[in-house]
Amino acid sequence: MTSYSTRLVRVNPQNVAALLADTPSVRDTILRAAAAGCKLPGSDPRALAHSWLFTGPPGAGRSTAALALAAALMCTDQPGQGCGACESCRGILQQRQHTDLVFISPQELSIGVAGVREMIHQAASLPTVAPYRVVIFDNADRLTDEAANALLKTVEEPSSSTVLVLCAPTDAPEDFSQTLRSRCRHLYIPAPSVERIVEILQAEGHSPQDARLAAVTSLRHVGRARRLVSDPMAQRRRAAAINLAESVFHGSGGYAAATGLLAAITKEAKEAYQEADAKEIAAVELAYGAGAKGKGAAKAQREAKSAVKRVEELQKKRATRRLRDLLDLALVDLAGIYRDALMVKVGANVEMTHPDFAGLAQELAAKVSEEGLVAAQDAIRTCRNHIANNVGPALAFDGLVGRLRQACGAR
Ligand SMILES: [Zn+2]
C-alpha cells in the first residue's frame, strides 16, 4: 500500500527538465545549480549552494525536486542536466538509490539531536563514485531547537563535495528554525496543478476519468491523489468524512457518525503499518541475537530487550503522527464540502472541491445560511487546531459536531 512516509516517485524515464516542467522557476534554479556543480561551460558558479532549504505545501513534490537536483548532479550521461535514463538517474529518481545519495525521512513528531547525527555523519563523508554526495533530509520542520543547533555547523560549512537539502512541508518558512534558514538557500516548491497530477496518474496507468477525479479531490497533493485513485480504504474514509456534513442534522446520529469516522481512521493508522513495524522489531531482535544460548546469552537478551523497547517507543511516536495526519486530511475533506456549498450559494462559477458530492453541496446550500456555511468552516479550523495542539481526538470531534450543528441550525 502506498503511504505518505514510504511513497516512491514512480515515473517513466523522464529527464530532469521534463520532470519539473510544471514549475519552471524550480526547474531553472535546479538546472542552473547542477550546471554550476558540473562546471558546464557558461554556468554561474554562484548558482550552486551547498545547503538548501526546500519548502512548499504538503504533497507539492519537495522530495521529487530534491531527487531531481541529486540526479542532475550525479548523471553520468548528461552531467549537470540529468538525462533520466542512465543507471544513476534511474536509481535516484525511481528508487531513491545511489551510493552517494542519502535520503533521510524521520517519522517522529519531533526530531531531537539523536535524529540528526546520521545526517551530520553522512554529510562529512566523501562521495565514492559521483562528484557529489547529496544528503536529503525530509520533515526538517520537526527539528527541535537543539537538533537545529546541532546541525548548524554542518549546514554552515558543508564539505565542498557535499550538497545538503533540507525539506520542510510548510507554506510558512518562518515556522522553520531562523538560524538554520539564514544559512541555507531557500527554494519554494509550489503545489502542482490539477492537470499535472492527472498526467502523473495517467502515466502510472490509471484511466483519465479516475485520474481526474482523484486529482481534483486530492487538493493538489500528489501522494494523496495516488492513494485515492488506488486505495479503496482511502476513498471510503474520504466519503465518510464528507458525509459527516449530512449526519450532523440527525441529532445523536451526528455524534455517532463522528465516533465511527474516528474509529475507522484510528484503525487505518494502526493497520497500515502493522506489518512494517513487526518486521522492524524482528530485525532488531535478530541483530541482537535473540534466542541465542550459551555464554553471554543473558546479557545479549537484556540488550535486545532494551533495543526493542526503544524501537517500540519510536513506533508509537510515528503512529501518533500518522493518526494526526489522517485526522487532519479528513477534516480538510469535510471543510471542502462546506466550501463547495458556499460557492453554490453565492453562485460562484469555480471548480468544486468534491465534484462527486455535488448533490450534497446543493442540499447544504439550500438548507444553511451563508453565515452558517462560513461558521461551519470556522468550526473545522478550530478542530484542526485542537488536534494539532494535542487535544484528544474524541473530545475534539465531539466539539466539532456540536459546533457544526449550531452553525447549520440543526435541531
Ligand atoms: Zn542520467
UniProtKB/TrEMBL annotation:
Provide this UniProt record's keywords sorted from A to Z: Nucleotidyltransferase, Transferase
A GO term (biological process) for this protein?
DNA-templated DNA replication
Q: Which residues form the AAA+ ATPase domain?
A: 48-193
Question: For this protein, what is any one GO molecular function term?
Answer: DNA-directed DNA polymerase activity
Q: What's the EC number here?
A: 2.7.7.7
Q: What class of enzyme is it?
A: transferase
One family from Pfam that matches here is DNA_pol3_delta2
Q: Does the keyword Transferase apply?
A: yes
- Report the superkingdom from the record: Bacteria
Q: Which PANTHER family match?
A: DNA POLYMERASE III SUBUNIT DELTA, REPLICATION FACTOR C / DNA POLYMERASE III GAMMA-TAU SUBUNIT
**What is the name of the protein in this document?**
DNA polymerase III subunit delta
Organism annotation: Corynebacterium lizhenjunii
